[in-house]
Amino acid sequence: MRIMVVDDSEIIRIKIADVLADENFEIVGKANNGVDAVKQFQQLRPEIMTLDITMPLMDGIETIKKIVEIDDQVRILVVSALADKATLLRAMSLGAYGFLCKPFTDNDLAEAIEELIEDLV
Amino acid sequence: MNDDNLKMFVEGTSHYFETVTQKPAVIGAPFLIKDINKYLSDYTGVIGISGNYKGSVFFTAPQSMLRQLLAAIGILESGEDKMMDLVGEVSNTVSGNARRTFGDQFMLSTPIVLKGKSDSVKVSKVEEVYVIPIVWRQHQANLIISLEE
After folding, report:
1. How is chain A split into domains, by residue range?
2. What superfamily would CATH give domain A2-115?
3. Which of its termini does chain B have fewer beta carbons within 10 Å around, N or C?
4. Nearest CA in chain B to A107
5. How many domains does chain B have?
6. What is the 8-class DSSP label of residue B78?
7. Is the pTM of the predicted complex or chain greater than 0.95?
8. ipTM beyond cut 0.85
């Protein structure tokens, strides 16, 4: 399955891409802010997106709104340090399918992605 | 900042190192300081806080620790850009996790990264500035909390 990784930290983008490539996902795009994420999404149309919340230019909450307007079937996993319930509920109500709190282990990420797509495979 | 809030930052920092590296850090007891600049190291990530609290959260660490931390995360290249990215990400993660206690009105900026020791960082208007010392694999870093309600 085709995945896009969105985070303003290059370290996190590399980490997520490496873990998911090892799980045989195809990393089709990476973006470091919401504006670039939406632009790339329109061209690449990945089936899954991992998405940070706190980012420059456009945050993850606004990005979810824009992405879901384009494709409401995309599976978005929010990967964020923001650990409060309100942020989780807001993201999920806008169309995110899952939420993984930073910091995370490789296993945490792999399990979160598996749960995200379990009804698709 | 009360003791419970400081304890939450201590636990959050401990949780970060344990989760990301599987090697626990030794987190010391927080103590009050007057001059923040004496406690800055080679690279410092700063998160500005607004909303129900105002101030900043700093994570500051030496190159030697950041190189090993990058390796432990699985990032083999440890150039300056990666070290700057890492201090920003640690400060962001520990601050973001604090919203579990402080709620969604604990608003975080994106990270600002400072390079080198400085004598020009000021945290005026905040009376209490705490340092939480961190020792990981014999390297010393600090989490610096400058917050008021």
Report:
1. 2-115
2. Response regulator (3.40.50.2300)
3. C
4. B19
5. 1
6. -
7. no
8. yes
